[in-house]
Design brief:
The protein is an all-alpha fold. Helices cover about 70% and strands about 0% of the residues. It has one domain. It contains 2 helices and no strands. It is rod-shaped and about 55 Å long. One of its GO terms (cellular component) is membrane. One of its GO terms (molecular function) is P-type divalent copper transporter activity. Keywords: Membrane, Translocase, Transmembrane, Transmembrane helix.
């Protein structure tokens, strides 16, 4: 049987993992969708930017 403490530890680890993934994604995707590559001549389709 799984104890409540084991379940809460696993839940907390998963929460930290999800927070890490979300932070990494946002560090990459938000500047890309905002047009940070425009000065380099790379233009992102607005629909793709919205999907990011």
């Amino acid at each position: 049987a799984v104890s409540i403490l084991d379940l809460s530890k696993a839940t907390y680890r998963k929460m930290l993992q999800n927070l890490g993934w979300a932070t990494g994604y946002n560090v990459f995707a938000i500047p890309l969708a905002a047009g940070v590559l425009f000065p380099l001549g790379i233009i992102l389709n607005p629909a793709v930017g919205a999907a990011l």
